Amino acid sequence: MGLWIALGVTLVMNTRGKELISNEASKSIEQAGNNAVSKLEARSGEIAALTRGLSTTVENLPKQEETFQEIVPKIIDFNNDLDVAGGGVWPEPYRFEADTERRSFFWGRDESGILQYYDDYNQTPQGYHNEEWYVAVRHAKPGTCSWSESYMDPYSYQPMVTCTVATFEDEEFTGTTTIDLKLEGLQNLVSSWQNITGGYVFILDRNNKFITFPQLDLVKNFSQDDLGKTIEEFIFLSELAQKDSVYLPLSEALDMMNEEILELARQMPDYNLEIAERINRDSYQIDRENAKLLTAVILDPLSQSLLESKLYSTINLPDDLILKEPSKAFVFHVPSSYWKLVIVKPISEIEAVGNRIFNLIFLYVVITTFICIFIVYYVLRKTSIEPLQNLASHIMEMGHLVEKDRIQDVKKIEVDRIFVNEVQFVAHTFSTMLDRLQISQEKLANYNHTLEAEIQKRTQELVEKNTSLESTLTELKSTQSQLIQTEKMSGLGRLVAGVAHEINNPVSFIKGNIYYIESNTKELIEIVESELQDNTSLENKLEDIEYEFLKEDLLKAVRSMQIGTERIEEIVRSLKNFSRIDEAEVKNVDLQEGLDNTILILSSQIKKGVKIIKEYDSIPSLECYPAQINQVFMNLLANAIDALLEEEIPSKKIWIATRYIKEAQIVEVEIRDNGPGIPPHIQQKIFDPFFTTKPIGKGTGLGLAICYQIVQKHKGDITLHSEPGQGTRFTVTLPVG
Where are the transmembrane segments (predicted)? Predict the structure, then answer.
């Protein structure tokens, strides 16, 4: 019986038990892979954010070489991130200088990590306008980062991938900005993950070209250029599969993954095969199939799938090249960049836990079985076998005495009375054992119930801790993004103040000279007219050159220049007042002046048909941080303008009202529009970090969240009232004193 129990337990553990334990081990690898994907997505997101910041800055810079040389490298070297190999600005032909086709600005790090300026891209015959990383982003959504294949830069000789973001002026494509990420940094990042996942990890780009690998010499081709320097080029997974067939199943699976991405994109309404044809035609580096995949990736067809887990598939490798044993590859999708993260783990390690548990249980079952058999045998011997043997011996002895007619001696034999109740004793013992078994079963059931409750309690605690960790991670990401946004706003303020200062000096010089030109012109006209009275020859010459027209036109031109310089001075003064970089402390501020400065800065957008209606009451000055309050006004007004311009509204209006409520000692600033309004389900999340209804590239989801925090910091309040079709009203309440 014990042997059958042992065999049954062994059979169950060797089949179903091992399978369940292996599945749990695979889930552990899946969780580790998802964590790695999140970290990789965060790293690529940092580079994409830096590239978008560079793009936004370039769009607002004057086209002056000295300004670009000063500002651009400082942005590229943000936080001195040495994994950033370099970056640059790449204008469209004749956009930076009317007579220059190629005028790029590129910086790359030298061997000591210092950014150096390279002008080589402007000198090459083919230029940069047909490069893969330049052509693709033309067709991407504004603000979207387009990632290149892995490559070695021909001038800095750094293996890298490039994030490219387009630049626009009045919604017209004007060029690109790029940030280059060293593959060496990604290689180090992946190596650190291997200590957690076991096995090995590597990354492929969207075309299944290697970005990292544990043994780089297996996935690189080496050659020399005309200068004798070594060129390193990563190969595709299919090329490695040709060298070693063990990777053939993985290569075929990832090719099928790209086909599925293409098929999903074809089902999307925005898919346009003509875009793929243009990409293929415009770049000598992109073939037809690559162009189709690139067009699909631009549409991001996997954005609504793989939400819970980024694990796409698992593939068995019969005899891995590096691990030298049968292994399993776990393929994860990396959002946005469409890279693939692959974790290769030996099957023996995945099943090792199950094997250890099986061997341990088998040993315990065998030992327990032998102990039970020994105890049963010992009890039976003492309670049944030995008494029966004694009884049989007495009976045989009594038989021998009867045969010898020694009847009188039979009475002398004393039969052991213990046997008389032996059957009853066995029955009583079995009954007692059954009672004890029932009690044990009840105790076991109670223990199982308690154990299930404890497991459920611990599971709930684990879920709560995971939820807390996820909340903490979200807060950390929010804080990090807000710090980046704040630093960008601070940098923008310094840039605005610097530009305003640089513009103000020459404008003041021009304005001063115009005054003397006007004065001298009037004196010259008086002299000429006084000479006309006695000089007929001079009068005829002046008639030939239309003197009266020239006199009137010249005075109008001088007056026009005066008005223009006064307008420039007004804009410069508003820029300085808005930026207020030197006012990091709390100061008394006129809120209405801040509102007027903000309106002036947004005047280019307001001129598109938006009417501003001011309803200012007399309000006292407030103690606040001027730059932060101006940022709140800027975000609210910019959102209102965007909402009006996105809809076909006959009369676009924005009302700005200020009120002083003396009883409550507060000032209210109300910004209202007659736009489409905000749906109720969106109003609940309007102040959440990263929540935005704008397309990619037009909003970070941080504007209103930062407004809310700034107002809270000033011990004020910001409220929203909106009904669909009735417009939107934001009310900012700030305390006085």
Answer: 357-380
Query: Which range has highest mean pLDDT (39-43, 60-64, 431-435, 481-485)?
Result: 60-64
Sequence-ordered list of residues with C-beta below 8 angstroms from that of 475, at least 6 positions apart, any chain: none
- Give, rounded to a whole angstrom, the gap between the first and last alpha carbons of the chain: 89
Residue 348, token pair as written in the block? 């023996």
Closest CA relative to residue 215, chosen from 233, 201, 227, 228: 201
| β-bridge partners, 159 | 152
Q: Quick one: what percent of the chain has pLDDT higher than 70?
A: 74
pLDDT over 70 at 488, yes or no: no
Residue 525's CB is within 10 A of a number of other CB atoms, namely: 15
Q: Regarding the domain delimited by 14-350, which CATH topology (the fold level of the hierarchy) does it fall under?
A: Beta-Lactamase (3.30.450)
Residue that is written with structure tokens 């400065």 in the block: 597
Alpha-helical segments (H) within 14-123: 18-60, 65-76
For the record, the structure tokens of 525 come out as 């006209």
Strands 652-661 and 610-616: parallel
Say which amino acid occupies 504. N
Q: Are 235 and 209 in contact (CB under 8 A)?
A: yes
Phi/psi of residue 733, nearest 5 degrees: -110, 125
Domain ranges of the chain: 14-350, 455-581, 583-737
Q: Mention every residue, 6+ apart, whose C-beta is less than 8 A from residue 533.
A: none
pLDDT per residue as tens digits for the range 295-341:
898 888 887 776 678 898 899 998 888 888 999 999 999 988 899 99
Check the CA dihedral 24-30-32-38 and report its sign. negative
Fold: same for 14-350 and 583-737: no
Q: How many CA atoms lie within 13 A of 710 on its CB side?
A: 22
How far lies 379's CA from each of 374, 375, 387, 507, 683, in Å? Answer: 9, 6, 12, 113, 79
| Dihedral sign of CA atoms 630, 633, 636, 642 in order | negative
Residue type, 18: K
Which phi-psi region, left, alpha or beta, contains residue 333 (left: φ > 0; alpha: ψ -120 to 50)?
beta
Residue 548 Cα distances to 186, 525, 596, 672, angstroms: 74, 10, 42, 52
Q: What is the DSSP string of 243-263?
A: H-GGGHHHHHHHHHHHHHHHH
Handedness of CA 365, 366, 371, 373 (dihedral sign): positive
**Residues in CB range of 566: below 8 A, 6 or more apart:** 511
d(CA 13, CA 382): 37
CATH superfamily placement of domain 583-737? Histidine kinase-like ATPase, C-terminal domain (3.30.565.10)
Place of tokens 């009690």: 439
**Phi and psi torsions of 545, nearest 5°:** -100, 15
C-alpha 309/C-alpha 332 separation (Å) is: 9
Give the CA distances from residue 330 to residues 22, 132, 253, 685, 709, in Å, rounded to whole numbers and listed in that order. Answer: 14, 30, 11, 36, 42
pLDDT, tens digit, 9 for 90 and up, residues 359-374: 666 666 667 777 877 7
- Look at residue 435 and give its three-state secondary structure: helix
Question: Whole-prediction pTM value?
Answer: 0.48
Residue whose pair of structure tokens reads 């990396």 in the numeric block? 334
State the Cα–Cα distance between residues 532 and 542, nearest whole angstrom. Answer: 9
Map residue 678 onto helix, strand or coil: coil
- In angstroms, the CA 654 to CA 500 distance is 28
**Closest by CA position to 175, among listed 53, 58, 57:** 58
Question: How many angstroms separate the CA atoms of 426 and 278, rounded?
Answer: 94
Quick one: which of 345, 290, 343 has its CA closest to 312?
343
Measured CA angle at 93 (ends 89, 99), to 5 deg: 110
Mean pLDDT of 128-141: 88
The tokens for 688 are 């959440």
Tens digits of residue pLDDT in 634-648: 889 988 988 888 888
Report helix angle 591-601 to 626-645, nearest 10. 50
